[in-house]
Design brief:
The protein has about 575 residues and is mostly beta strands. About 10% of the residues lie in helices and about 45% in strands. The structure holds zinc ion.
Amino acid sequence: MLGRTARKLIYTKKILILAPQKGAFFMRLFLFLVFTFSFFASFAQTASPGAPLRPPLELTSNFAEYRKTHFHSGIDLRVNNKPDKSVLSIWDGYVSRIRFNSASYGRAVYITHPNGYTSVYGHLDSYAQFIDTVVTNYQYKNHVFETDIELPEDYLPVKQGQIIGIAGNSGYSFGAHLHFEIRDTKTQDALNPLKFYEITDNIAPVFKQLIVYSMQKGGYLPAISQAYTVTKRGSYYSPATEVLVPDTFFLGFDVQDYVNSSYFRLLPKKIDVFIDDSLVWQIEFDRFAFDQTAACRGVFDHDAGLNKKMQIVTTYTGNANRQGFYKKYSNDGLITIPDNNIHVLTVKAGDTEFNTTEFRANLKRGNISRPNPNTKNQIHSGYFHDYQTENVVLKCDTGTFYGNLALEKPLIVEFFTNNHLAWTIGYTEIPLIKPMTMVFRNDSLISDKTIFAQMDKHRIINGWKPVKNSNGAYSVSINRPGTFELIDDTIPPTITKANIPANNNISYLKEFVFTVTDNSDEITRFNAYINGEWTLMIYDYKYNNFSIPLSVAQRKTIRTLDVEFIDLAGNITLKSFTF
Ligand SMILES: [Zn+2]
């Protein structure tokens, strides 16, 4: 009988998890359920998880969404409307890893559970005290801010529903939210967290556009695209006209999902493609391995994502066909119409709550425009390629590109600008899924102040320091196309703002805050000393902010403060204050 009751309660709670409910009654009910649930969780470790935040929960980003360089590895939950932003462990387990980064996940906690899953909570505003102590001890012992600690099983046990931190905006986050992941502990693969929760959702995905991509003759990228706006006609979506296609093509779907508790556009969970009622292609966003995450640049239309902020799922699997999202495909996701008759395309898109939308169109071979073939600069993605210029060798491993390429210009062009060596490498329409390596052919090109900089007009937007590879030559890893220059950077970082009171009275100051910028956009090292002793300085990359928290006792005893900021090229800015 007890077991039955428990199951019923768990079910009720699952329903509540993402439902937009209000009031203290639900909070009390939730706490009661968490309590009841924890009790049974100790018997059945594969039981349903608890919520990572106090309900109601609002989904703002879904699993596997397009993120320029990677798939979104979890879900995002809104917190800025919540009076209680406590983050809760979803099952019993232990804290297995704690990270604190200036960008990335900011403050993050990993909890390993005995059921084979690990849950991850990112962008926290603060850690719970028992976790914070471990982080602070590590930082002071090692005189570092950036933290990545792995912990053994018995060190920090947690119970389901236990508070592990407060949600916030730390790291590479723009607006307070909780980034929440569930991983397979053994493989560390990211799993779709919504598989573990029932959510209140009766809204089916919405089709907006169908895109037909024509490749260059022989199956080379870049392709050109033709978009068809679609609208709902009766029970399914369709375009106004029949869709003309070349002999061989691939398709893109602008299809977005919505849930009842949120107005954010979300990625559906599953898309099935049928030609004349036979299933030819299927994708399911259920799990991925992190070493496959850059395939995001091909699973989605990378150009549309980067330049139009659109999330379009394409059928072309290219060179990334090991990507686990593809459940069915043939011929690299290319579709061929066998004759001049009309063939029916049916696309079904579904979400995690089995709301399904259907799209239908009539496909017909037509005389449609195709990209001009570029016969000179062909790159086969299944082979190694080395491209030599006067000063560098650009090395592309097998599988560097999402598909075979035929380019207008050579992949790499070397030139001189303002007395700097410079290169254009590829362009954004070429989805790069593995980094390339650029090797400098002459050591004398590199001094200790040299940085390899990605430029936007005359501004440095990214910088890398050439490093000696195993053969003793300098090299850099390039993970994006663009224009790059080799620059000797002798300009140190600039402290553009400091909150030191004019009268030097710091007895009420809760923290010192410095805003520091650098021409290369990279502060790689920094330190702060109070009365000559190393003290923690917290770096928030997105705001260029460095803050030094001060305790009440500390404020009264500070006589000196020394700060140093060091950029990628090793240029140092030092500043001392006396109080
Ligand atoms: Zn996220």
